[in-house]
Amino acid sequence: MTAETSQTLDRGLRVLKLLAETDHGLTVTELSVRLGVNRTVVYRLLATLEQHELVRRDIGGRARVGLGVLRLGRQVHPLVREAALPALRALAEDLGATAHLTLVDGAEALAVAVVEPTWTDYHVAYRTGFRHPLDRGAAGRAILAARRGEVDNPGYALTHGELEAGASGAAAPLLGVSGIEGSVGVVLLTDCVPERVGTRVMEAAKEVADALR
Q1: Are 213 and 175 in contact (CB under 8 A)?
Q2: 3-class SS at 155?
Q3: What is the CB neighbour count within 10 angstroms for residue 208?
Q4: Model's pTM, two decimal places?
Q5: DSSP of 88-124
Q6: Is residue 92 within 8 Å of 99, Cβ to Cβ?
Q7: What single string gives the DSSP state of each residue in 40-78?
Q8: Which of 180, 147, 145 is nearest to 159 (CA)?
Q9: Is residue 192 classed as helix, strand or coil in its secondary structure?
């Protein structure tokens, strides 16, 4: 802590981080131990966070992340989209394919940014806001591979016809971006995806990850 920082705010943010890292919540005693402060301080922190709906406590008294955090999280999408657009535009123009940034939203993959190429006669229509299960489509499969630590070879996911008949997808996960699970990919009207597409998608994913750090 420095003279310019707030100890109370720091502790409140640490509470949110601790709660975000667990699925079953934490008791006041558990938070007290992990923060290294007494229970009275924890009670005050939780009461303040509850007022802003950032924390909720269940019948058993365990504290969990509140719905207010989700509302704040939705505002992150525009910022992420803006940071990703330059790399997506370059990717779409380079490959002549529809490029997209997809993030995890619950149990689904959500397209938060889409860029279509300007010079092709036809391309796949893929819209911002499109959702699909994580285990279908290249975007979701790339994210799941990153969760399992299986992105070393080849480093990207390929699919054909899983989301749209006749369309193929290639996507690479965003790596090294704290708090964000996502992927960058393209959708093409082809049965066979050239190897350079996978390489180019990985490059774009790295560019987006660098922009978000």
Answers
A1: no
A2: coil
A3: 26
A4: 0.71
A5: HHHHHHHHTSEEEEEEEETTEEEEEEEE--SS-S---
A6: yes
A7: HHHHHHHHHHHHTTSEEE-TT--EEE-HHHHHHHHTHHH
A8: 145
A9: coil
- 200 is written with which tokens? 């180019």
In angstroms, rounded to a whole number, what is the distance separating the alpha carbons of residues 206 and 87?
9
In order along its 213 residues, the chain shows pLDDT tens digits of 566 778 999 999 999 999 988 878 999 999 999 999 999 999 999 999 999 999 999 888 899 988 788 677 667 788 889 999 999 999 999 999 999 999 988 789 999 999 999 999 888 888 898 999 999 999 999 999 999 887 766 899 999 999 988 999 999 999 998 778 999 999 999 888 998 999 999 999 999 999 998
Q: Do 36 and 7 contact (CB within 8 A), yes or no?
A: no
Which residue type does 179 have? G
For every residue of 8-42, DSSP letters joined together read: HHHHHHHHHHHHHT-SS-B-HHHHHHHHTS-HHHH
- Smallest CA-to-CA distance from 97 within 122, 132, 128 is with 122
Alpha-carbon span 72 to 55, nearest angstrom: 13
Q: Distance between CA 175 and CA 180 in Å, rounded?
A: 9
